[in-house]
Automatic annotation (TrEMBL):
Region: Disordered, residue numbers: 201-224, 559-627, 665-694
Pfam families from the UniProt entry: TgpA_N, Transglut_core
Cytoplasm as UniProt keyword: no
Transmembrane segments: 29-47, 54-73, 112-134, 164-183, 633-653
Compositional bias of kind Polar residues: 593-606
Stretches with biased composition (Basic and acidic residues): 668-681
Stated name of the protein: Transglutaminase domain-containing protein
Domain Transglutaminase-like per the UniProt entry, residue ranges: 490-560
Stretches with biased composition (Low complexity): 559-573
PANTHER family: PROTEIN-GLUTAMINE GAMMA-GLUTAMYLTRANSFERASE
């Protein structure tokens, strides 16, 4: 059965499953995996106990896994509460579909709702079945690392943070333990380990006795110790080396280097993908606090910007490569002036920001645009063209800093009057790839038809996205990866979240010749008390910034706001199509959108419209679902029931066999009025079958009891020889010895004698019980429990039945294959 290797394989699977921790909000998922692995292990052990073909090992494990999933997640629809039925299987399929939808709709870490818990148990169980097949049954422990590695690929693909070094180390040690256990069993298969006597590195002469007190150790002990040191060193190198290689770890050598200080020239900045970060923040279910801030802005706070994405390659928006030198360090000095801001009114704003300590890898600072001075400890730098604040070494998590910014207050007239752009702005911010589909170019022209200024075109684009275009805000939409996704959003599906809206408006603005880029960061959040605001993860946002000479880069808001969109998004006053503010006639003769605008921030206050609800028609996770992950008592109860059922199968088979043997005699009662010797065999009319059957049944029962209690049974012994050997071996008392003798004599007469005095079946049945009690008293407690719980005779009977069934099936297949030949011969 290879119980030890089975346990080691299961432990290795659980050790590697620790790498899934970044995907879940709590650790309850691990116990779901434990129950699944135990179920698979039980199924594999049963398969090997029955000596089934290797291909059936994973099938038995998966069958036990299905039983566990049925009890844990669909016992209400199952037969007898645990046997899979069409209804339970359908329920499991629906639950798996819900889990898959939730996993794709929300970003990690997610709560362990029922559907996701089912997927976790099924996934870990399948990996456990594959590892057990490769490492235990096929004795190929090294390839078993492939399914173990597959579990690490999931968090690596889903989360930009990957897997921590501790989780990787635990999984690596589990795999190394599997390899060591397999090697030990392979060496042990050659026999007992050879030991030599050592002292001071010298071997004794042949035939000489070792001196007293000399230590005896295996010859391979030193090699084994070397192997363990090599394994530990390999894991240490795999964990530490990436942290020491610049470029592999984003923060340089052990987080200390990569600063690009004086004399070091420039260094390329490596940061998380902004679009991936945006999707993850928007779909976090906990809606955790990202930062809090205080501001003295009399008009209320504006958005906090992290990134300015100025390049579009036809598929995705990205920012230009940031090459920083010592000259770009903040060092408390005034930042470069914002480009293009020369006409619009400006007022200075001071903002004090405190980032939550739970925020990790925030290497760009969220600041109001346009920052003029930033006071923060650490090595922080500014990108002069976009005024993004970033660091090569530090993270904003847990930090507090003060930002002074210049907030422009352009009017509609200021934007409408802006004409002409600098040549460098046009060259960089109106570039459009040649592979943009002509349908989008035509669409941009049609939407802005009749507009006579760049502002009027921008207002019409914004209004088309928020009101007249038929767009729907939907967080379940996948992030766009290719140009075709953009075409589908604009022309067909018209469903998306802020990334699609901002990217599409910025692209269409460039097609119209308006310099544009995509900004990402956070909305103003919600006000908790006068002057104090809280920004949560779902306030993450993307918006387009358009350039107007004299006003610089100004924000537009094409994403639907309010309860049906981004809950805290705010439409600027200068982008409202009111027709006032000095715009040209006809440019703004449009009804105003319903989104909140201007300095009135009532929609961002606690008493405003409720925050965006993401549990709309696409299906969300209710509080009840989040608390019912199937991981409380149900998995443990299911696991216990499965173990009890597994233990009960051999016992039930043994009891059923015993009952059938004696019941067959009771079904044919002997005619007591007949002469015992009438038929020449001392039996009942018809050949004495009752007497023979009772003797054979008692003998088989005694043989099964002997095997169950671990007593040696020699098939070549005669009944008398077997009884004599058992009696001498166990030193039986008079009563059990006489019972054993009667059973042996009855079997001997039934086999060889023509005439005999038959023993009554009741006497033989009582003798069998007496002998069984004597067997149990003569062996240890472990043997007695094995005879009761896991009787070997039942396992042998099951193997024999399976072999017979297989032989009959093979014979039937041969007959069916030969049937055409026989029909032709006829």
């Amino acid at each position: 059965m290879r119980i030890r290797m089975t346990v080691v394989a299961g432990a290795a699977t659980l050790a590697c499953s620790v790498g899934l921790y970044p995907l879940f909000a709590s650790g309850k998922w691990f116990w779901t995996g434990v129950a699944a692995v135990l179920a698979v292990m039980c199924g594999a052990l049963v398969s090997r106990r029955l000596r089934l073909p290797a291909v059936l090992d994973p099938l038995c494990g998966l069958a036990m896994l299905l039983l566990y999933l049925t009890v844990a997640y669909s016992r209400g629809e199952a037969w007898l509460g645990f046997v899979p039925s069409p209804g339970s299987l359908s329920h499991l399929a629906d639950l798996a579909g819900d889990g898959w939808h939730a996993a794709n709709r929300y970003a990690a870490p997610v709560p362990l709702v029922s559907g996701i818990g089912l997927l976790v148990a099924a996934g870990v169980g399948v990996v456990a079945a594959l590892v057990d097949l490769l490492a235990v049954r096929l004795r190929r422990a090294a390839p078993a690392g492939l399914p173990l590695l597959a579990m690490y690929s999931v968090p690596a693909a889903v989360r930009q943070d990957g897997v921590g070094w501790l989780a990787f180390g635990i999984g690596a040690l589990g795999f190394l333990g599997l390899l060591m256990a397999d090697a030990r069993e392979q060496v042990g298969g050659w026999g007992r380990a050879v030991t030599v006597h050592r002292r001071g590195g010298e071997l004794p002469l042949a035939g000489a006795e070792p001196p007293s007190g000399q230590r005896v150790e295996p010859d391979g002990g030193r090699r084994a110790a070397s192997g363990r040191r090599i394994a530990a060193g390999s894991v240490a190198i795999a964990v530490l080396l990436p942290m020491a290689i610049p470029g592999v770890h984003p923060r340089g050598v052990f987080g200390l280097g990569g600063g690009g200080g004086a004399g070091q020239g420039t260094q390329t900045v490596t940061t998380p993908d902004p679009l991936v970060s945006l999707k993850r923040e928007l779909t976090r279910l906990d809606d955790s606090i990202v930062l809090t801030y205080r501001t003295d802005d009399p008009d209320g706070p504006d958005y906090l910007r992290l990134y300015a994405l100025d390049r579009f390659d036809g598929d995705r928006w990205t920012y230009s490569r940031l090459s920083s030198s010592a000259a770009d360090r903040l060092s408390g000095r005034t930042l470069p002036p914002p480009p293009g801001l020369s006409i619009a009114p400006v007022h200075e704003v001071t903002t004090r920001v405190t980032v939550s300590g739970g925020v990790r890898d925030m290497t760009f600072l969220p600041v109001p645009y346009a920052p003029s001075q930033v006071s923060i400890k650490g090595d922080w730098r500014v990108h002069r063209q976009s005024l993004m604040i970033y660091s090569l070494n530090d993270s904003a998590g847990g930090r507090s800093y003060t930002v002074r910014s210049l907030r422009a207050d352009p009017t509609a007239a200021d934007l409408s009057a802006a004409v002409g752009y600098p040549a460098d702005v046009v060259a960089h911010y109106t570039t459009v790839p040649k592979n943009i589909p002509p349908q989008i170019r035509t669409l941009a022209q049609n939407v802005t038809a009749g507009a006579s200024s760049a502002r009027a075109q921008a207002v019409k684009l914004q209004r088309w996205f928020t009101l007249t275009g038929g767009f729907t805000y939907d967080l379940s939409t996948p992030a766009p990866q290719h140009g075709n996704d953009l075409v589908d959003f604009l022309l067909r599906s018209k469903r998306g979240y802020c990334e699609q809206f901002a990217a599409s408006m910025a692209l269409m603005a460039r097609i119209l010749g308006i310099p544009s880029r995509v900004a990402m960061g956070y909305t103003a959040g919600t006000q908790t008390q006068p002057g104090t605001w809280v920004v949560r993860s779902r306030d993450a946002h993307a918006w387009p910034e358009l350039y107007f000479e004299g006003s610089g880069w100004v924000r537009f808001e094409p994403t639907p706001a309010g309860a049906a969109g981004q809950g805290t998004a705010v439409t600027p006053a200068y982008s409202q199509p009111t027709g006032a503010g000095g715009g040209r006639p006809g440019d703004d003769a449009l009804p105003s959108p319903s989104a909140t605008s201007g300095p009135d921030r009532s929609s961002a206050s606690p008493q405003a419209a409720p925050h965006r609800n993401d549990t709309g028609p696409q299906g969300g996770l209710t509080e009840q679902d989040a608390g019912n992950g199937g991981t409380a008592a149900a998995p443990w109860i299911a696991g216990g029931v499965l173990v009890l059922l597994l233990l009960a199968v051999p016992m039930a088979l043994r009891a059923l066999t015993r009952r059938r043997r004696w019941a067959s005699l009771a079904a044919r009662p002997r005619d007591r009025g007949e002469d015992p010797g009438r038929d020449g065999r001392g039996g009942a009319p018809g050949g004495g079958s009752d007497d023979d059957g009772a003797a054979h049944a008692a003998w088989r029962e005694m043989r099964a009891d002997a095997l169950d209690h671990g007593l040696e049974w020699r098939p070549s012994d005669s009944p008398r020889a077997a009884a004599r050997r058992l009696g001498e071996l166990l030193e039986l008392d008079a009563v059990p010895a006489e019972a054993l003798g009667r059973i042996a004599r009855a079997e001997e007469l039934a086999r060889y004698a023509r005439t005999r005095a038959a023993e009554p079946p009741e006497r033989l049945r009582a003798d069998v019980r007496t002998v069984r009690a004597a067997f149990a008293a003569s062996v240890g407690r472990g043997a007695r429990w094995r005879a009761r719980v896991f009787p070997p005779s039942a396992m042998a009977q099951a193997r024999s039945a399976l072999r017979d069934t297989g032989s009959r099936a093979a014979d039937l297949a041969d007959r069916l294959n030969d049937l055409p030949n026989r029909m032709r011969r006829r």
